[in-house]
Amino acid sequence: MSSFLAGSSQHKQRGLSTRTFMLSLGALAVLGALAAGLRGTLGVFTDGSSGESSEAAGERLFKRLGCGTCHGAQPGARGPALTGLFGSQVTLQSGVTVQADEGYVRESIMNPGAKVLAGYDLIMPVYQGQIGEEGLRQLTAYIRSLHVSAAASATPEGGKNER
Question: Which of 45, 100, 133, 158 is the S-S candidate for 84 at Cβ 3.0 to 4.6 Å?
Answer without folding.
Answer: 158
